[in-house]
Amino acid sequence: MTDSANEITTKVHDFLAKILTELGASVDKIDIKAADHDLTITIVTSQAPLLIGRYGQTIDALRHLVSLFLFNLGFPGHVSLDVNDYYKNKDDQLLLKIDEIIDQVVATQQPKHLFNLSARERRLVHLHCADRPQVITRSIDTDRGRVLVISPTPNDQ
C-alpha cells in the first residue's frame, strides 16, 4: 500500500470512528483495505442492527457518507462497506440465484429481465457475469426503473 493509500485509510478510519461514536455504536474492529481504485471497509460490532438499519438503509447511508468524504479528498474509486458480513451473505445468496438464471438463459437462449435490484446489486451481477462468456448483461431504463437484462451471448461472438 502506498503512503497516499495509508493516509486515505487512516483518514477514513478516523472519519468512520467519529460517526460511529456519535451514533453510540461500540465497534470491535474497522478493517479498511485499499486496492487500485477500490476501498473495502469491514466493520465488526455487537450492535449490527443499529449500523445496518431497516432493509440496509443505515449501512447504505454510511457507505454514502464515506463516498462523499473520499470524493472531497480526491479519491476516484468505489467504496464498499459491510457490517458483520451483512452484504457478503446477501451477495452470496444473490449470486446463487444469478447462477441459476444464467443456466436458464443458456439453456433456453432467452434473456431474463431482473427488476428491483439496487445499483450495488446490479454492479455485482455485471461483474459476476463478466466472467461467464455464455452471457452478456446490460442495464436499461424502463418506466419501472432500471432493469438488468441477462442475455445469451450471440453466436457470432
Characteristic terms for this protein:
alpha+beta; GMP Synthetase, Chain A, domain 3; 5 helices
Q: What this model shows, in words?
A:
The protein is of the alpha+beta class. It has two domains: about 5-85, GMP Synthetase, Chain A, domain 3, CATH 3.30.300.20; about 90-150, Ribosomal Protein S8, Chain: A, domain 1. Helix content is about 50%, strand content about 25%. It is built from five helices and six strands. It has helices at about 5-25, 50, 55-75, 85-110, 120-130; strands at about 25-35, 40-45, 80-85, 110-115, 135-140, 145-150. The strands form two sheets. A three-stranded mixed sheet has the order 1-2-3. A three-stranded antiparallel sheet has the order 4-6-5. Helix 4 (about 85-110) packs across helix 5. The chain starts with a helix and ends in a 5-residue tail after the last strand. The model has no long low-confidence stretch (mean pLDDT about 90).
CATH homologous superfamily heading of the largest domain: K homology (KH) domain
What structural class do helix, strand and pairing data support?
alpha+beta
Number of domains: 2
Total number of helices? 5
Question: Helix and strand succession?
Answer: HEEHHEHEHEE
- Specify Rg, calculated over alpha carbons: 18 Å
β-strand percent reads 25-35%
Span between termini: 39 Å
Helix content: 40-55%
The biggest beta sheet is recorded as: 3 strands, mixed
On the 0-100 scale, what is the average pLDDT?
Answer: 92
